[in-house]
Specification:
The chain is an alpha/beta fold. 33% of the residues lie in helices and 17% in strands. The protein has helices spanning 19-26, 89-100, 110-117, 131-135, 166-177, 182-194, 198-210; strands at 3-8, 37-43, 49-50, 56-57, 61-62, 71-76, 105-108, 151-154, 158-161.
C-alpha cells in the first residue's frame, strides 16, 4: 500500500529546506521500491499558501484532516512563526500524535524549536541551529542529548536538522524511509554535496547494481 509523506506548509515557510527530501521521495529514480511513497502537502487551512520564496501552493489537505492512517512521516520545515510561543500549535499537536503512534516526524531549523517547546527533544538525540537556540525554550531539558551535527536521526521517531543542512536533512529522511540502497544513497549525497560529476556515474552504477531505476528509466 502506498504511504504518504506529509509536508506541512504555512505562510513564509522556508521552501528550500525540505526540497531535496520531497524531490527524492516523489521521484521514482534510484528508489528501492518506486512508488512506495507520495508527497502531499498539509496546511492549517485550505487556501493558497505562499512560501518564503514566493511560491504559491494549494495544500492537499488541512491539518484537521490529517489523521495519520496512511502516513509514513510528517515533515516540518522552518520559517516564520516557530519562535512565537503559540506558533504552529495545531501542527505541533499533529506532530505529537504522530510521535505517540510511532510515525516519524522530521523537523528542520525553526521547527526544532517547536518540538523543544513541547518537550519532545528531552529524551532523544537531536540537533538544531545551535544548542543556545533550543535552550531559550522553557520546557527544553535535553542539553545532554544535543548533538552538534548538521542532522540527527532517532530511528523510528525523529529527524532533526539545522537550517543550514537541507541536504543532510534529506539524507536522514531517506535513511529513515529506506528509500534508497545504501550505496545509492551515498553516491547521491556526494553528488550534491561536492558537485563532482564522477559521483553521477557512481550513482548510476550503484542503482544498476541494486536493480533500481535510473533517471532514464523512471
Amino acid at each position: 500500500m502506498q504511504q504518504i509523506v506529509h509536508l506541512y506548509i504555512f505562510p513564509g515557510f522556508a521552501d528550500w529546506e525540505p526540497a531535496y527530501a520531497t524531490a527524492g521521495i516523489q521521484s521514482p529514480a534510484y528508489q528501492r521500491e518506486p512508488g512506495r511513497y507520495e508527497v502531499r502537502t498539509v496546511a492549517a487551512g485550505s487556501g493558497l499558501v505562499h512560501s518564503m520564496g514566493g511560491l504559491a501552493l494549494l495544500p492537499d489537505l488541512s491539518l484537521a484532516q490529517l489523521n495519520g492512517a496512511d502516513s509514513a512521516m510528517l515533515i516540518l520545515p522552518g520559517g516564520e512563526g516557530w519562535d512565537v510561543p503559540a506558533g504552529h500549535a495545531e501542527a505541533l499537536d499533529r506532530a505529537g500524535a504522530f510521535i505517540d503512534r510511532g510515525i516519524p516526524v522530521a523537523a528542520i531549523c525553526g521547527a526544532t524549536a517547536g518540538l523543544a517547546r513541547r518537550g519532545w527533544l528531552n529524551d532523544c538525540p537531536h540537533t538544531s541551529n545551535a544548542l543556545a537556540y533550543l535552550k531559550s525554550e522553557p520546557d527544553y531539558a535535553g542539553t545532554d542529548r544535543y548533538v552538534d551535527a548538521p542532522a540527527v536521526r532517532d530511528p523510528g521517531r525523529l529527524v532533526t536538522a539545522a537550517g543550514m543542512a537541507p541536504l543532510e536533512f534529506a539524507r536522514e529522511i531517506f535513511t529513515e524511509l529506506e528509500l534508497y540502497d545504501e550505496a545509492v544513497l551515498e553516491a547521491w549525497f556526494q553528488l550534491f554535496k561536492t558537485g563532482r560529476s564522477e559521483y553521477f556515474a557512481r550513482l548510476q552504477q550503484a542503482a544498476s547494481e541494486a536493480g533500481a531505476p535510473t533517471m532514464a528509466d523512471a
